[in-house]
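A note from the maintainers: we've had questions about how concatenated examples are separated. There is no special marker in the raw files; a new sequence line simply starts the next protein. For clarity in this README we add a label.
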Amino acid sequence: MNATSKLTAQAQVSVPAAMRRKLGIGPGSTIVWELEGDHVVVRRVGLHTSQAIHSILFDDAPKRKTLAELKSGIAKHLRQRHARD
């Protein structure tokens, strides 16, 4: 997939709609620009790493969790976060 953009006088670049859809990005998304030889590679930056998510859900337990425990922890976290008072 190829697309083109122009650099504005303020050094801004518009990301073509097809690329935004493919990358799943929109307003407020963060992208990273990497130089690989003489090519520039643009990648979407994830908001959370799996390690960060794990530490949020299971900060009190240093051992690895099973898939069932991970799903249970996510469900518990979502219930607590979205609970109505």
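[label: protein 2]
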Amino acid sequence: MASMDPDPARVPGLEPGGGVRPGDTPPDTPQTSGLSASEPATRHHFPIPGIVAIIAGVLLVAVFLIAAVTTVVLQF
């Protein structure tokens, strides 16, 4: 069975002992870990539709609680 590793004697650029000459290796790849565009400014306040939705939800829960309590009280 043949080995998949190349023969070191036939690989170009290798020095005796298996090292490579300076300049024979490709340069390091550039880092791309930064942002390419600036982040949009965030708002520091809660949106009006969110406030309206919370108020509507609280009112809806209150109506259902009042209806449930009224139903229970009127049955006795």
